[in-house]
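PROTEIN DESIGN WORKSHEET
SECTION A - STRUCTURE
LENGTH: 640
TOKENS:
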């Protein structure tokens, strides 16, 4: 088994992660699947922002009308002023109502767009994960892999659901507010420019450091999830060996690392909001002071009259100052909203970087050109083509497997197989025995091309398997593994997994061959009984029988049994022995077993030690040699 490692230990995509802007742009590229919804949402955001700004801008003429009314002591203009004031209030009310309506619509549309984006992102992530080689899954725990779909994808969803919507609203509003303030008073607007510069500097200083810590936080979260999944799955072992204290201690160490990283990341992100709020209060006070001084002095702002070549001095009116201060408050609120969502955005970008790093990993390489075809007579052939695409040969599929001087190492350092040579043909049963780690399962992994040999070659009907398309190669192989996995679904569906177009009758026949029909018939709903949680409602032996039935229904040419009966008691094993013999009839069979009674009738038995075949022959030949196999067998006999 290859060593576990970090995500990019053995699968290198880009030399460095994308910049935040490239990562964000890549996330946004998923909106192409819902561009109409997104455009409609953006239009509503524009309408909403304009409505709120216009409503605030109407405050200046409204205050001016009130000033005129107070100045009109004789009451001559009072009716007209009341009418104008009422009209302005109606306009403001309409703008606020329009803002409320468009705010609801834009949030509804953004939720719809986000749902579509996440739907496509999950599909792309899952689809790409299916193309990765087995090596990748061997090196990462289930918890680590699930962390992509939970923590990382959910962080992106949270950003798109709320943060991006608010950022768009705030960004467009800031542009509109800036234009309105510039129109109201250019000198006072200088203060806003200083505020904007301070905001940009703060975001740059704090945001960059925060993002790095969020990236590390997501990695540590993945590590913690992997450990939790491993401990929960092995809870019986933990309790059986009183390992609870050790498990808790190791978890506390990782959890402490997560606490420290999360604290640093969230502290940097969280202080941004208070800093922005304090800056907004300071600049609000400065603007108020300066504006009052302008208004008190009366004539402080120079303006060129359109009708005169002379400079005319005008002052800042009280109505203008009140409206400007309202916009300052809105500007500060929008900046504060942006700062509050920086946390979510940084977390989402960290998650997005991990997701895209996985999606950028190169898929499993399949450079095979030899394909499997079915002739009119129902026989199968390997079609060999040359570099020009011309058919040069058609080799009958018979199931002859040969290993020639095979060397292999998982990590390039520790040799697992050394100079392994063996031959197997149709109708033969080849068994592998030896201690754990001797390389038995590795041989079957190489035959399936889960890994490729480093030196030597493996041929299938005389063809190097590296030249055969992986899907066609694996389509002729059937495997029953020691670690049985059943999928959520009925018993019938789990058997049919070996051949998706198999009829119910074929599935039942396969179950009878595996001697699983009897116990299946006595389940609450027979073959329609639902299995969940990897078949938790079945015994380990029953699950393995279903796995054997699954292999039987696939009707493979080459059958690999990796400790296929390890979870079955001796009595049940003898009951299905005849069925297994029938299943193995006319096929090339590789058997891995620690229980030597299951390999006695093999045509050839290979004894492996430290990756080498040290003995070979049938059961009686090996007993006569009185070597390693003899020691294993006699030891087992004495214990029995």
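SECTION B - SEQUENCE
RESIDUE ASSIGNMENT:
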């Amino acid at each position: 088994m290859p060593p576990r490692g970090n995500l990019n230990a053995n699968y290198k995509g880009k030399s460095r992660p994308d910049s935040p802007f490239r990562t964000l742009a890549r996330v946004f590229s998923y909106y192409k699947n819902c561009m109409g919804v997104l455009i409609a949402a953006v239009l509503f955001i524009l309408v909403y922002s304009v409505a709120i700004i216009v409503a605030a801008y109407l405050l200046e003429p409204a205050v001016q009308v009130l000033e005129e009314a107070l100045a009109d002591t004789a009451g001559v203009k009072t009716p007209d002023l009341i009418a104008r004031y009422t009209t302005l209030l109606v306009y403001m009310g309409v703008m606020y109502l329009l803002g409320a309506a468009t705010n609801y619509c834009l949030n509804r549309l953004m939720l719809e767009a986000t749902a579509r984006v996440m739907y496509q992102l999950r599909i792309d992530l899952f689809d790409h994960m299916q193309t990765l080689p087995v090596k990748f899954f061997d090196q990462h725990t289930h918890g680590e892999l699930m962390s992509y779909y939970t923590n990382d994808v959910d962080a992106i969803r949270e950003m798109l659901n709320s943060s991006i919507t608010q950022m768009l609203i705030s960004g467009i509003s800031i542009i509109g507010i800036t234009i309105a303030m510039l129109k109201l008073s250019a000198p006072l607007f200088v203060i806003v420019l200083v505020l904007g510069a301070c905001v940009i500097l703060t975001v740059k200083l704090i945001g960059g450091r925060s993002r790095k810590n969020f990236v590390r936080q997501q990695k540590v979260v993945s590590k913690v999830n992997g450990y939790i999944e491993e401990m929960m799955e092995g809870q019986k072992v933990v309790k059986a060996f009183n390992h609870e204290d050790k498990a808790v201690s190791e978890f506390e160490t990782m959890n402490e690392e997560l606490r420290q990283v999360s604290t640093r990341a969230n502290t940097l992100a969280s202080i941004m909001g208070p800093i922005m709020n304090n800056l907004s209060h300071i600049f609000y006070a400065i603007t108020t002071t300066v504006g009052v001084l302008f208004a008190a002095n009366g004539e402080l702002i120079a303006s060129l009259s359109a009708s005169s070549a002379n400079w005319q001095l005008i002052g800042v009116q009280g109505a203008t100052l009140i409206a400007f201060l309202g916009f300052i408050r809105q500007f500060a609120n929008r900046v504060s909203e942006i700062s509050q969502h920086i946390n979510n955005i940084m977390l989402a970008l960290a998650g997005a970087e991990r997701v895209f790093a996985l999606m950028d990993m190169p898929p499993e390489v399949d450079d095979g050109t030899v394909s499997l075809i079915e002739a009119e007579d129902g026989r199968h052939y390997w079609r060999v083509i040359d570099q020009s695409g011309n058919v040069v040969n058609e080799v009958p599929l018979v199931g002859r497997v040969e290993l020639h001087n095979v060397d292999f190492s998982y990590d390039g350092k520790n040799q697992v197989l050394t100079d392994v040579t063996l031959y197997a043909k149709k109708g033969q049963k080849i068994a592998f025995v030896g201690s754990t780690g001797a390389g038995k399962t590795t041989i079957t992994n190489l035959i399936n091309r889960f890994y490729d040999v480093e030196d030597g070659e493996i041929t299938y009907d005389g063809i190097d398997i590296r030249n055969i398309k992986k899907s066609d190669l694996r389509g002729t192989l059937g495997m029953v593994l020691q670690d049985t996995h059943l999928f959520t679904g009925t018993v019938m569906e789990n058997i049919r997994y070996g051949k998706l177009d198999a009829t119910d009758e074929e599935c039942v026949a396969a179950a009878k061959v595996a001697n699983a029909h009897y116990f299946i018939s006595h389940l609450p709903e027979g073959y329609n009984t639902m299995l969940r949680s990897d078949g938790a409602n079945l015994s380990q032996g029953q699950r393995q029988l279903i796995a054997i039935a699954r292999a039987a229904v696939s009707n493979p040419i080459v059958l690999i049994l990796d400790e296929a009966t390890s979870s079955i008691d001796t009595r049940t094993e003898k009951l299905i022995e005849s069925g297994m013999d029938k299943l193995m009839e006319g096929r090339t069979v590789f058997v891995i077993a620690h229980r030597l009674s299951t390999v006695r009738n093999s045509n050839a038995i290979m004894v492996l030690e430290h990756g080498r075949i040290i003995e070979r022959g049938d059961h009686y030949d090996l007993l006569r040699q009185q070597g390693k196999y003899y020691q294993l067998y006699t030891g087992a006999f004495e214990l029995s």
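SECTION C - NOTES
The first strand starts at residue 301 and ends at 304.
Residues 152 and 352 are 7 Å apart (CA to CA).
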